[in-house]
Amino acid sequence: MLAPTRTRSRTALLTAVLALAALVPTLGSASAADPQRLTVDLADSEGPVTLGANGALYGLGDDGVPSDAALAPLKITSISQKPEGGAQHPNGDALSVSKSFFRNGGGEINVMMQDMYAKWPYEDLGIDDYLPKVDKITEEIAADPNSDRFVYIPFNEPDFIWYKLNLTDQAAYEVERDRFFAHWKTVYHRIRAIDPDAVIAGPNETGYYPRFLRDFLTFAQHENVLPQIMTWHELSSGSLRDFQGHYDNYRALERELGIGPLRINIDEYANRRDLSVPGQLVQWVSMFERNKVYANMAYWDAAGNLSGQVVRSNIPNGGWWFFRWYAGLTGDTVKVTPPQPNTIDTLQGLASLDASRRQAQVLLGGSAGDSDVVVRNVPRSVFGRTVTATVAEAAWSGYEGQHAAPQVLTRARLKVADDGTVTVPLRGLHKMSAYRIVLTPAGSGTPSPAAVPWSASYEAEDAAITAGQIYTQGTVSNANGYAASGTKDVGSLNQPTSKVDFRVSVPTDGTYDLAILYGNQSGGPATQQLSVDGAAPVTVSYASTENWTYRARNDVGIRLTAGSHVLTLAKGDAEVTLDRIDLTARTGEASASYEATLADVSGRPSYDYSSSSGVGTGALVLHTGDRAVFDVYAPRDGYFTVRSRASAPVKLRLHGETVTAAPGQPLRLYLVAGNNRVALSAKYASVRSLDVSGDGSTAGTLAYEAASATLSGGAELVDSAHASGGSYIGSLGNGPDSRAEFTVDAPRSGRYLLVVRYAHNERRDNGHAYNTDIMSRTADITVDSGAPTRATFKNTWSWDDYWTLGVPVELKKGTNTVTFGNPTGWAPNIDRIELGRVAGEFRH
Questions:
Q1: CB-based contact 489:579 (threshold 8 Å)
Q2: What is the pLDDT of residue 6?
Q3: Which one of 12, 72, 308, 401 has the lowest number of neighbouring Cβ atoms within 10 Å?
């Protein structure tokens, strides 16, 4: 019998930390194999949290891709995009995406000026060809009202594009070096002549090269053409080992030459195997944050998903939640000493202390096994003699795999030892997960125990495989391979007899959630046949993915009796690759509590830790003018039950609608699939949490299939086996007369969510070596004679995969006409629309 490859850490962690509630000074004793120790020193400040490491190259594809709700919570400090009209890729133009970036709190935009060129590496047509392009880019940026928030990057990886700056022959190197220096000076002055206040960054090499940097800084200082921001790339797994040395060497070089210190932006970092993986990302982010440098994740695949952290346009994966945690750090970062500093694929972390909020947070991950997190110098003036420790996990869910709000694993009251330390033992860590520990003053009462269902995981490569093959994916030696659980998956399941038999064991009779990590290389929807113990199979459908190694997640409910079973996934109508399955006991209605003291805030709320009851992290006290914003996850579009755990009535604002919630009163609110920003305000209220439960009911919504629309101007109804009603609206737009009109009968006036089920696979292959150049489509949505709303629809990977996009609209009671069109380009294919009032009513 095959045992689970790994059992979820949640149960193990729960047992370990609940055992700590005896309030002993040092919690637990070392096991036979001593746990790793990660030490946090709250008395050793590194300076204010910068949030510098959360950027991405081509992280934005279009205005609305990713969505505002996916962008705003991350507090992104810098991104890198191409110039307007640049030929390198079909979208991601800096000025075009700046609107969504800036309205969602974004910092600055690096403009990769050479991305005006179409080829990679860039076609070398000489500096005289490049200078008019420089002029055009600079003139457009200088004319923008936010011109002071753009950074010019004149050259990208010049050490191997246009110039050979790493030659070992010194004389040949100096010829190339001097040619680059002359061009740098020319372009620098060209930019400054048009935009005197320009912020210029460079030299932007492929890696850290001290010989060249010494020469460059010496030249640039002498000629008065120093960049305002120093940039280079860290794009190998070895960077996790080497970056600290690079940083230290560079700062020493500045001091020797009497320069700076300049701000540093590592404007490309990480490998494919790192992106989307919380346990990998924490290693990169911790080293950048402790050195207070800015950094943008690399662009290895498609634009518009924040380098693999956003599913579709609005859905978080595990990587998104890690960056949401990172964005929640406030105050100062403090020194963290990991078990093995500057060592590839080991336990690393970062931590913060906010004395005004009376919170300490630790983010850690990157290693499997056991660890003790020792927090030193816990100030009694801030925390008192007892703290509440709250531990949560952000797991890996794939690049295209949805991830619910991170599971709280434990809540426990812990004494601060006489020497000022608190030790939090973590057992059964997962290498690909990141973990967050929050320390707050304990107060009276006891936190509610974390509800952690039984769960187990099974690797496909450890199962019984018929007519399939095991492949190895992203590893240290193949860092630009895609991530896979355990670094292996099972592919080539393309024969009629292909199947994978997983032998599983569950503790009780009941319904289990089966999560399948997969890749779909078929170019369209695919299926497999799922059977239990050889019984009649059911069909499992898989949405398309970018490629067979770009991992996604499919969730299926399954009934099992206690004991051992064989779950078989056999070939269906196309080829699907399998990575891992997770089984989790379904213990009741899905629910999550979002802690108020960890929400985004504005105004001047206060923090009350007099009681540890409920979520354990105290209460946020709001007055008039204060606001707390919660990031609420929904697995699908539909109605959920929302309750505020508050001392007085509060107002909740969602999708432009404001509703009043009495303490504990259930509200039926419409949430869109993925992240929903819910703002809470009050004249006065003490708020502990916002609690959300439900499965996304569509009872009471309005639904209209494509066939019910009135079409004009060439728009047509097209038969499709994949459309919900058997047909979709195609050939819509690309002219002012092409429209689709739906007649909607609203039961009452008010704010509704219009959910559009759509598909399209428009692409423009620019011939780039590794990027997938997908494009978005737009549609103008008009209600009756009102002003149109332009909505952006991301590429769905195939013409037969349907995604949803929610757009708030106002409807009047009775008949409304909802019109779709696009006078300047093609709209997406539309399958159906649904409408639900933002504030619904409970149906009995």
A1: yes
A2: 41
A3: 12
Q: What is the pLDDT of residue 162?
A: 98
Phi, psi of 150 (to 5 degrees): -110, 145
pLDDT tens digits along 446-490? 999 999 999 999 999 999 999 999 999 999 999 999 999 999 999
Phi, psi of 320 (to 5 degrees): -60, -45
CA–CA separation, 452 and 773 (whole Å): 41
> Nearest 5 degrees, angle CA 626-CA 628-CA 630?
170
Which helix H or strand E contains 810, and what residues bound it? strand 803-811
Integer angstrom CA distances of residue 840 from 612, 659, 667, 679, 836: 33, 11, 8, 18, 7
The answer to whether 385 touches 370, Cβ cutoff 8 Å, is no
Whether the Cβ atoms of residue 392 and residue 592 lie closer than 8 Å to each other? no
The alpha carbon torsion through 40, 42, 44, 46 (nearest 10 deg) reads 80
Taking all residues of the chain, what is their mean pLDDT, rounded to a whole number?
95
Q: How far apart are CA 592 and CA 328, in angstroms?
A: 18
Peptide linkage before 196 cis (omega within 30 of 0): no
Tell me the C-alpha distance between 60 and 555, whole Å.
Answer: 28
Burial class (CB in 10 A: 0-12, 13-18, 19+), 196: exposed
Give which of 415, 414, 437, 443 is closest to 608, Cα–Cα. 443
- Amino acid 18: pLDDT: 38
Q: Are 316 and 403 in contact (CB under 8 A)?
A: yes
80 vs 59: CA distance, rounded Å: 7
Helix axes 127-142, 94-103, angle to 10 degrees: 30
pLDDT beyond 50 at 522:
yes
Distance of CA 362 to the CA centre of its chain: 19
Query: Contact at 8 Å (CB) between 290 and 40?
Result: no
Q: 184 — phi, psi (to 5°)?
A: -60, -45
Pick from 215, 103, 194: which is nearest to 152 by CA? 194
Contact, 237 vs 483, CB < 8 A? no
User: Is residue 184 within a helix (H) or strand (E), and if so which, with residue range?
Assistant: helix 170-194
Predicted confidence band of residue 767 (pLDDT cuts 50, 70, 90): confident
Which residues have a Cβ under 8 Å from the Cβ of 30 and sit 6 or more positions away?
none
What is the pTM assigned to this prediction?
Answer: 0.96
Question: Would you list the DSSP string of 741-782?
Answer: EEEEEESS-EEEEEEEEEE---B-----SS---B--EEEEEE
Dihedral (CA of 717, 719, 721, 726) sign: positive
Over its C-alpha atoms, the chain yields an Rg (Å, rounded) of 27
Nearest to 830 by CA among 755, 773, 774, 775: 755
